[in-house]
Specification:
4-stranded antiparallel beta sheet, 35% strand, 5-stranded antiparallel beta sheet, 11 strands, single chain, alpha+beta
Length: 174
């Protein structure tokens, strides 16, 4: 007897395998931006801790403290008005904490794929012995901003608002 011709069709197992592969690929695509955002959050938290530690150290030691954000490599960044003149060096995309004598207290290099978005100048915040802070990167408002973004996708970024007088940082996602 002739068997009835079989229809060519996908089995249930084959369909489940294809669906699971599609789901796996989609989940991997969704994880990359969240991992980048987590790196940014981590970098911003470290920068915030630099500001907090510099403020605490200025109060405790009764000496000025500086936090410098290096947008680019810098040899000979001078802090004017200091006697003797303090000259600092740093590498691009790093945050460095110096004491009033220009001695490096701590340094942090941003994750390899993160960067400051304004490459035009290196900036600093000076912490005074009463805990007050003066960020020196211009602007006439009471708040100065630092933006940290992913190198390959600047749509993933975090903005830090630094308040004059207190050095308090409020971070927000863009």
């Amino acid at each position: 007897l002739d068997a009835a011709p079989m229809k060519k069709a996908f089995t249930l197992i084959e369909l489940l395998v294809v669906i699971s592969i599609i789901v796996l690929i989609l989940s991997m695509i969704a994880v990359v931006p969240s991992r980048d955002k987590a790196k940014l959050r981590s970098d911003v938290a470290v920068i915030q801790s630099f500001f907090e530690r510099a403020k605490a150290r200025a109060i405790a030691t009764r000496r000025l403290q500086y936090v410098v954000l290096f947008y680019s490599n810098e040899q000979g960044y001078s802090i004017l008005g200091t006697s003797p003149l303090i000259t600092l060096n740093g590498v691009a995309n790093s945050v460095v904490h110096y004491d009033s004598g220009g001695t490096r207290v701590d340094e942090f290099l941003l994750e390899s794929r993160t960067k400051f978005t304004d490459p035009t100048l290196n900036t600093r915040a000076t912490f005074y012995t009463d805990g007050s802070c003066v960020p020196l990167w211009g602007g006439s408002s009471n708040t100065n901003q630092i933006v940290v973004a992913m190198e390959n996708d600047t749509t993933i970024s975090r903005t830090m608002d630094i308040t004059n007088g207190t050095g308090k940082i409020r971070a927000r996602e863009e």
